Structures are given as structure tokens and as C-alpha cells.
Amino acid sequence: MTSSATVVEAERGTSGTGAALRVVVVNGSPSRQSKTMGLVDVVLATLRTMLPVEASQVDVYRLGPGFTGAAERDEVTPEVEDVLRLVENADLLIAATPVYRGSYPGMFKHFFDLVDQYALANKLVLLAATGGGDHHALALEHALRPLFAFFQALTVPVAIFASAGDFDGVTLLNPGVHGRIEMALADVVDLLKARATGARTADA
Q1: Any stretches that span the bilayer, and where are they (predicted)?
Q2: What is the per-residue pLDDT across 159-202, written as a single tens digit (0 to 9) for each?
Q3: Which of 30, 84, 89, 148 is most exposed by smallest CB count within 10 Å?
Q4: What pLDDT, in 10s, does the model give residues 3-28?
């Protein structure tokens, strides 16, 4: 496990039974308190009402020179290597980022430049973004989804976007966004159930 500066200690959900779903949030915001993470907080709180969850958070802007100075995977420090493996071994990845000038920040992209090309194949990825206005929502489909298509990840069909007007500070208020979160997570639960059923059928 890496330092608390980069990965928040795992929190186990209380609903449901069985092994907890390993959820890793990759946070692309440079701010310590941000609307992006305000959105993610609601996503995680809602997910915990559906499934037992073990959640970790990677703040790409807090990974330090062992990350920013690495052009290739074999150049990262052991601490950053641990973070990359954490993401690669997640059951559900939440890719959360603010939108700047039509796309995600370069530091967010740099993180995924270091992720193994095949490590995210068929992995469930939930896309979440925030921006100053609704026009920034296009980045979900034109920037984020193609990025994870390269990795052959299974992106959840419903992506989540919230604009600045949906918040009071970093607290999400818009009930419409809350509804979209519930829709997206219903898809996550359905996909997980389908995988579990498929795995049991294959073992039979």
C-alpha cells in the first residue's frame, strides 16, 4: 500500500454480503477539495447502498516526481508502481476528471500512459467528469470513452457529468445528476451480476 498522500485508506461498505467490490478512483483534479471529488463522493455513497465496497483513491497530482519524471513504466518509483498495480487490479475503476478546454488534464492522461496496455481489458470503468458548463459534457464521449476503448475496457454505458451550477461549493445538489448516478450504478450492478452468472456457468 502506498502513502496516504496518494491513496486513501480503503473503506469497506456495510451493505450486502460476500467479498467487497474493489473500487479504485483515479482523480484527475489538481485541487485537494474539488467538485470532481464531490461528484465521486456521491457515486461511492450510492454504490455502498447496493454492494459491499472497498474503495481507494489515486490523486494523480499528488504522486510526485517519481510519477511526473517517468516517461516509461520502468522509470517509476516503487510507490508509483504500487499505485499502478492497484488500478490494474481493481474490480471497478472510476475515472473522474475535470474538463479543461474540451478534454482531460495532461497529468490524468500521463497516468494512463503508464498503465499496462492490456491490464484494463474487459475491466469495468465508470466515467465521471465535471466542467464549467454543460458543453464540457462532450468530453465524456469524445475524449474519455475513446481513451478506455484503446485499453479494451468495458466502459459503463451511462457516463456521469456535473457542471459548476450543480454544486454548492463541492456538494452536489442537482437531483438530475443524482438520478444519473443511480442509472449508471444500476448498470454496474447488472454487469457484475452477468459476469458472476457467466463465471458460474463456465465452472459448471
Answers
A1: none
A2: 999 999 999 999 999 999 999 999 999 999 999 999 888 777 77
A3: 89
A4: 333 444 444 443 344 689 999 999 99
